[in-house]
Every structure is written in structure tokens, then in C-alpha cells.
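Input set for joint prediction.
Command: fold jointly, output C-alpha cells.
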Amino acid sequence: MASSSQGAGHRAARRRGSGARRVVVALVLLAVVAAVVGLVREARSSGPPPTVAAAVPSSNSVAPSSSAPPTTSTPAPPTTPPAEPTFDRAQQSIDDPNSPWVVVDKARPLAPLDHAPADLVDIGGRQLRAEAAQAMRDMIAAAAAQGLTISVLSAYRSYDYQVDTFRNQVARFGEERAEIQVARPGYSEHQTGLAADVGGGGCDIESCFATTAEGQWVAAHGAEFGYVVRYPDGAQDVTGYKYEPWHVRYVGVPLATELQRTGTRTLEEFFGLPAAPGYPG
Ligand SMILES: [Zn+2]
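C-alpha cells >
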């Protein structure tokens, strides 16, 4: 048993020896970890400043030459002084019926007259162009979050549909009144797939919509979703239509918010187009 006790002593010594080695190894490891952590911290703390420093000169160098198109990617800090980029009113077509900025009125028919959009999608049993439909869904959801119920009562109307509607209105009310109430085929914003008639608050496609919480919310917040009230109060001499608080037109968020920011009532005035109180000729 001596050998075994000797062996036990050796093992104990080895254990003591390996225990000491382990402590050393652990200390070395700790030192390495601490060094790595220190390096990472250093890298982190010294990381951001160069990027910021690099970003500042580049934006400064861009600012003086205002010919460059305005970049919308970086949100400007609220403290930025008035050096806001001028809104480029030519960045989208106002003539192309596929453009979100297309201006259609009694002097500016769609070209071709029987134009039909290619990307119509369903929205509550009606149709809008895909982008306008998504914006409408977002707007309806945001209103719902405020306890307001907005519904789409009319949206895309085809050339053929407008032919029938116009004919019916003329038959019922005569041509003069029909032309105030319903657009001629090829002259309706509804044919672009970017316009909708909305209702809520117990008032559908009537002037009372302006007095409902829903109508007031749409007028105030529609721009956040790219929608404007296209035929505002007191602008019939420009748009050719009496006040229609229910008729909203998708133009995209940048243009809608610019119209709101500048207090511009109509697309005609914003783009410097002639007033279109009636059909020419
Ligand atoms: Zn309408």
C-alpha cells in the first residue's frame, strides 16, 4: 500500500502543481480578456467620432452647391436653421397619367382620354392604384386608432363608367348642372386610380363631411399619408369643382406635405397652371 500512498502523495503534489498552473493560466486569460475588452472599448469610443467628422464635411460641401437634388434620407435635426432645400416642382411629371403628380382638371384631360392604370388593387371592394391603396389603408388605420371610422365610398372609375355616369347626370339634371357635379369622361381624377371619395361620422359624400370629426381629421392629417383634399372650399374658380371635403387625391407624402406647409390650396396654383373653372370651348 506504500506505493499507493506514495502515488497518492505524488498525485496530491501534481494536483497542487496543476492547481498553481491553473491559477496562472486563469490570470493570463483574465489579462488577455481585460486587454481585449479594453481594445474593444477603445475601438467603440474612438469609432463614431471619425464617421461624424467625415459626415460633417461632406454635408457641408454639398450644401453650398444647391443644384444637387434634395436628399430626404437623413432627418434634419430640429435645431437646423432655415437652410432647407427648395422643393423641386419638376421631379415628377404632371402630364403623365401614371405619375402620382398628374394634374387632371377641366382644362387638362387624361392623355389618352381612355387611360386605365395598370396597378389597380382592391380596397374594400373598390380599386385604387397600389401605392394610393396602401396609403389609404394606413390613413384609415391611423384614424381608427383615434376612434374614427373612415370608409372608401368610391375610388377608381373607368372611362366607360364615367361615360355612363355623365350621360345619366345630363339626362337627370341637364348638361350645365351635370358638368358641375360630374367630370366628363377622360377628365375625372377618379380615372387615375389616385382619387377617392371617403365618408364617415354619418356623412357620406356630402358637404357635412367637413363638419365631422372624420372629415376634419382627413383634412388635417391626410397629407401625412400623401392625400390632399383636392377641391377645397372657395376654389371652384380654380379647380372647376365646388367644395368637396370628401374627395381626396393621392399625390405622395412629399408633395402633400409641401402643399400643406406652404398653405397652397390647389395643384393648379402650386404648379402655376391656368385656372380651370370650366371646360374649354
Ligand atoms: Zn370624387
